[in-house]
Each structure stands twice: as C-alpha cells, then as structure tokens.
C-alpha cells in the first residue's frame, strides 16, 4: 500500500511540474509578443513586438517616421501633413491615408477603425484618449534640439527594425552640423551678432518665437541673436515691441511666408525697421516639414541660417548639395538642383 501511495505521489508531482513548465513557457511566449518603450515623459508603454500599423497624430512626427523608414506603417495621419506639398511629393501615399486629425482635434472612433497597434502623439489629451480606447500610446514632443534627439530615438524604438540605426545616423549628422556651425560662430560677441526676428507664419505677423526654443538655438548656432528676449514659442507681441526691437533680419516661417513678406514690405508700420530698409526679410525653407521648427530638416536650417546671417563665414557651404544629400540619405528621394533650390526658397514643387 505504501508503495502504491508513493508511486501516485511521484506521478502527481511530475504532472504538476510539467503543468508549471507549460505555464512558464506560455507566459514567456506571451511576453515575447510584446516589448516596452519609454516615451518622452518617461512613461513605460507596452507595445507589440512587431509594429506594422501606426497612427501618428503629431504633424511634425510624421516626417520623423518617414525619415526612419516607417512611413509604410502609417494607417492614420493628419490634415496638416497632407497639406505639405513636399511631403506628398516625396511620399505620395500620404494623401491616401485616413487623416482624422486637424490641429489638435482628433476623431478617435475613426482612428479605432484602422486598428493601429500604437499611437504616436504630442498632445496629452490625445494620448489619454487613445489609452482610454485601449490603444497603446507613446508621447513624443520637443521644443529644442535635445528634445529632437530624444523624439527621434523614441520613434525609432517604437518602429523597430532598422529604425534605431537610422536614428543614430541622423543624430550624428545633426551633431556634426551643430558643431560645424558653432566652431565658426562661437567667438562672435553678442554686440556683433545680427538680431533676428523669427515670425511663425505669414498669416499673423505679430506671432513670433522667443528665447528657450529650437528657433533661438539655431539663431545662436548660426551667429545671430534673437530680437525677442521673452521666452517661449509662438508669442504674440505688439507692433510697438517689434519696432523697439528693430531687428537686422526678419525670417518668416510656414507655407504662407511670401504673403507675409509682401505685407511687411508694403506696410508703413514696418518701414522704419533696419531689416525692411536693407531688404533683409526672408522666407524660411520648407521641405517635407518646416525647417525652422519641429523638423528633422532643422539640421539643414542651421546651415541655411549661417549662410544668411554670416555669408562670409559660411560661403563654402553648398546648401543645394547639402539638401540633395540629406533627402537622398534620409528620405530616399533624389532631388534635382531645381527642387532643392525651391525648398530652400520656401516654395512648393512645380
């Protein structure tokens, strides 16, 4: 009898051990189907191991996804991105992707219909909406070059595959351009730096960018100083404040920059400014995204601004070649010289 009981005990123990092993292996199998990424806030987000369907709700980050080779994973984009002519030129499929996002307004039920595996967004309300809908959401955002580096890295982590290596290559490129420019301008005293007024877009000439922004950073790298001393992006100022600042150079961003230039050059309120009197009012380059803000192409912005502010220090920079090389390397698109020139001039495709 004792031998029978002992035999049954051994058999039951073996069964339980095998069952435990099976559960452990099943658990490991489940874990292997997911992975964890950290977003810009340090929040850990569990996402599928293999990402094939991405909803990118931040206009600027769609360009980062494109650069990292992940555009074919996009199942949702934004109206703003579809309004960028060079993005559509480089990646025509963007016009076919559902775009239930305009500005910060998002139709989450439309995003749910395309069944994304992950949402990328900068707006915290959009992140919360996605998570409440049961979709993993990774927040990306930046207002300076350090934030750009982090956002590129996070987006690459989400996409997986070759994206992390492309991200490292891009960050090295960005760092090289910053160092190249800083080496040429760091010895310039503040008194000798031309003052630069950066206007956000041609639709509102009183909305400008101040200190502690990526705009302020590239102005400094390029050997200038910001005409606006207040901190923050997209600050609304008065005409009196602009007249008092009296910038040496005015740069207007966005796709409506030429409209803004025409208004400035024909408005008596602006006539007394040094920049207007000397004809130093310019359109900022616009490629697959605006070069001046929230853009991977901001690496090129530094060189463009250097040539504009200190042509004597950056005369050897062939910006057309730099632009063509960037597009070929990071966007896998062969620009012609004419196309590169139009991007630099802030003009759309012909």
In short:
The chain is an alpha/beta fold and 350 residues long.
Number of helices: 15
Structural class: alpha/beta
Contiguous low-pLDDT stretches (5 residues minimum) are 1-29
In total, how many domains does the architecture comprise?
Answer: 2
Instruction: Look at the structure and give the CATH class of the largest domain.
Output: Alpha Beta
The outline comes out as globular
Q: Which CATH architecture of the largest domain is right?
A: 3-Layer(aba) Sandwich
- Proportion of residues in helical segments: 40-55%
Keywords:
single chain, 350 residues, alpha/beta, Rossmann fold, 2 domains, six-stranded mixed beta sheet, four-stranded parallel beta sheet, 15 helices, globular, disordered N terminus
Question: Would you write up a description of this structure?
Answer:
The protein is of the alpha/beta class and 350 residues long. The protein has two domains: 36-169, Nitrogenase molybdenum iron protein domain (Rossmann fold, 3-Layer(aba) Sandwich); 187-344, Nitrogenase molybdenum iron protein domain (Rossmann fold, 3-Layer(aba) Sandwich). It has helices spanning 2-32, 59-67, 79-82, 85-90, 108-113, 124-132, 145-159, 163-185, 214-221, 239-245, 257-265, 274-277, 298-309, 319-330, 337-344, and strands at 34-38, 44-48, 54-56, 74-76, 101-102, 105-106, 118-121, 137-139, 195-201, 204-208, 225-226, 235-236, 249-252, 281-283. The strands form four sheets. Strands 9, 10, 11, 12, 13 and 14 form a six-stranded mixed β-sheet that branches. α7 packs antiparallel against α8 (163-185) and α14 crosses α15 (337-344). It is globular and about 60 Å long. The termini are far apart. Mean pLDDT is 92; it is low at 1-29.
């Amino acid at each position: 009898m004792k031998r029978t009981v002992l035999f049954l005990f051994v058999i039951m123990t073996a069964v339980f051990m095998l069952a435990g092993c099976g559960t452990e292996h099943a658990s490991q199998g489940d874990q292997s189907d997911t992975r964890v990424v950290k977003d810009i806030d340090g929040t850990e987000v569990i996402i599928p191991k293999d990402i094939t369907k991405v909803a990118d709700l931040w206009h600027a980050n769609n360009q980062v996804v494109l650069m990292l080779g992940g555009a074919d994973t996009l199942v949702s984009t934004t109206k703003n991105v579809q309004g960028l002519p060079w993005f559509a030129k480089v990646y025509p499929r963007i016009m076919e992707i559902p775009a239930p996002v305009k500005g910060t307004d998002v139709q989450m039920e439309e995003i749910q219909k395309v069944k994304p595996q992950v949402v990328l967004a900068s707006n915290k309300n959009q992140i919360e909406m996605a998570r409440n809908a049961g979709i993993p959401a990774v927040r990306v955002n930046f207002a300076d070059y350090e934030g750009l580096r982090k956002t590129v890295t996070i987006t690459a982590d989400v996409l997986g595959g070759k994206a992390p290596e492309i991200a490292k290559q891009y960050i090295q490129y960005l760092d090289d351009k910053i160092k190249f420019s800083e080496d040429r301008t760091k010895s310039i005293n503040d008194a000798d730096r031309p003052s630069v007024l950066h206007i956000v877009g041609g639709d509102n000439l009183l909305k400008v960018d101040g200190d502690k922004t990526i705009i302020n950073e590239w102005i400094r790298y390029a050997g200038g100083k910001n005409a606006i001393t207040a901190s923050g992006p997209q600050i609304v100022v008065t005409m009196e404040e602009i007249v008092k600042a009296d910038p040496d150079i005015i740069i207007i961003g966005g796709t409506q920059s030429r409209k803004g230039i025409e208004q400035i050059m024909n408005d008596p309120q602006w006539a007394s400014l040094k920049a207007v009197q000397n004809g130093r009012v310019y359109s900022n380059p616009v490629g697959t995204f605006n070069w001046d803000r929230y853009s991977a192409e901001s690496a090129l912005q530094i060189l463009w601004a250097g040539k504009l502010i200190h042509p004597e220090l950056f005369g050897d920079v062939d910006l057309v070649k730099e632009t063509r090389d960037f597009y070929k390397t990071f966007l896998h698109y062969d620009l012609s010289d004419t196309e590169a020139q139009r991007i630099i001039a802030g003009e759309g495709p012909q």
